[in-house]
Design brief:
Elements: H1 2-16, H2 19-27, H3 31-51, H4 56-77, H5 81-105, E1 107-109, E2 112-117, E3 122-123, H6 125-142, H7 150-168, H8 173-189, H9 194-206, H10 208-214, H11 217-227, H12 238-249, H13 261-264, H14 276-308, H15 313-337, H16 356-373
Antiparallel strand pairs: 1-2, 2-3
Helix pairs in contact: 3-4, 3-14, 4-16, 5-6, 5-7, 6-7, 6-8, 6-15, 6-16, 7-8, 8-15, 12-14, 14-15, 15-16
């Protein structure tokens, strides 16, 4: 129904404004996707304004980063998928080099060494790797018959493991998992038999005891707190307990914008970053959460539709994996804030405060728009 309404609306606009269609085509803008991203980012600014205690400085900083992200998205939308295919290996190995630099020269903050400083600003190479990973694997699988052979799958897993281990070493388990998801989504879209994919997941689960010994103490505690946060309500379980209280107290309609007790009185930790979803649940209630989920679902639907219309294997794998990673990131954040998944430090896309993640996601969707602009002229 929403799709039909949008198509009718766009058709009417084109009749009234002859330059309308050509303008969008010149800028390579997919209007439904662009509107969905803007609505989600705008929703994020509203929530951030309340979560930050009406701090205009924080909101203006985020708005500036949003403007930069949109400009970068429009620039990347002008580049053809063929060029992205040529640059993919260079970007991947460049990011691996930056991740190695982080381990030796990175800036430490909040217990992790994850940033590189360039004087005026700093950035996380691991966030860029979330884009470089699907680019690399889409390039890799585009040069072989699909579904891929076991040998090629082995190389693909090696390409995933290297940056995942480097990021986990920082330590940043959440981003490491997202990079792994980015790579695995490409493998799944490449047509790997589902039985083989499930076998790999079982093998990964079987290796958990080994992985457990490699985790830091605070990472182990986060997993243990998932099952029983009440064992340490004022310590390690405090985050998730306060988050669940905030979400549950919102009820159906919420306590109102600026009315969240846990948020405004600072009972809820990290309420502008990782736990901003709890602010939505407390202040806007079930209705606000449904609106947020609808926006994420709309972007997922549009991204997958563009994927189905892509003109070649590289474009399909790339657009599909970018879209799935965006949605999986949202699911993981909402799951950890709701007490369904361990707290792994994954921000809510386009909602949580922070520049690097926002710029990376908008840049990623600029590439998706490039795929759409260069699709075969087939009926939609």
């Amino acid at each position: 129904m929403i799709n039909n309404y949008l198509q009718d609306f766009l058709a009417q606009r084109k009749k009234k404004l002859p330059f309308y269609n050509s303008f969008l085509e010149v800028l390579h803008i997919d209007l439904p996707l662009f509107i969905g991203l803007l609505l989600l980012a705008g929703f994020g600014l509203l929530i951030l304004y309340s979560a930050s205690g009406q701090d205009l400085v924080i909101v203006s900083q985020q708005a500036i980063k949003l403007g930069m992200a949109i400009i970068l998205m429009l620039i990347l939308a002008q580049i053809t998928p063929r060029n992205y295919e040529m640059w993919a290996p260079w970007l991947y190995f460049g990011c691996v080099f930056l991740l190695i630099l982080v381990l030796g020269l990175g800036v430490s903050s909040k217990g992790g060494q994850r940033w590189l400083s360039l004087g005026l600003f700093r950035f996380q190479p691991s966030e860029i790797m979330k884009l470089a990973m699907p680019l690399m694997l889409a390039w890799f699988f585009n040069h072989a018959d699909l579904p891929p052979s076991l040998k090629r799958l082995g190389v693909a897993f090696l390409l995933i493991i290297i940056p995942v281990l480097l990021v986990a070493k920082q330590p940043d388990l959440g981003t490491a998992l997202m990079i792994a998801f980015a790579g695995l989504s490409v493998i799944l879209l490449a047509g790997v038999p589902i039985w083989l994919f499930i076998t790999g997941l079982i093998a990964a689960a079987a290796s958990f005891p080994l992985i457990w010994h490699m985790l830091h103490d605070y990472q182990k505690n986060r997993i243990l707190m998932l099952f029983n946060p009440e064992r340490d309500p004022l310590g390690k379980g405090y985050h998730i307990i306060q988050s669940k209280i905030a979400i549950g107290s919102g009820g159906f309609f919420g306590k109102g914008w600026f009315g969240g007790t846990s948020t405004q009185l600072s009972f809820l930790p990290e309420h502008t970053t990782d736990f901003i979803f709890a602010v939505t649940g407390e202040e806007l209630g079930f209705i606000g959460v449904v609106i947020l989920l609808t926006l994420f679902g709309f972007i997922l639907w549009r991204g997958l539709k563009i994927t189905l219309m892509a003109q070649d294997t590289f474009s399909r794998l790339l657009a599909g994996s970018i879209t799935l990673l965006f949605f999986i990131s949202a699911v993981v954040n909402m799951g950890m804030v709701s007490g369904i998944l361990p707290v792994v430090g994954v921000p809510l896309p386009l909602i949580s405060y922070g520049g690097t993640a926002m710029v990376t996601f908008f840049a990623s969707f600029g590439i998706v728009m490039s795929v759409h602009a260069n699709r075969k002229m087939i009926s939609t």
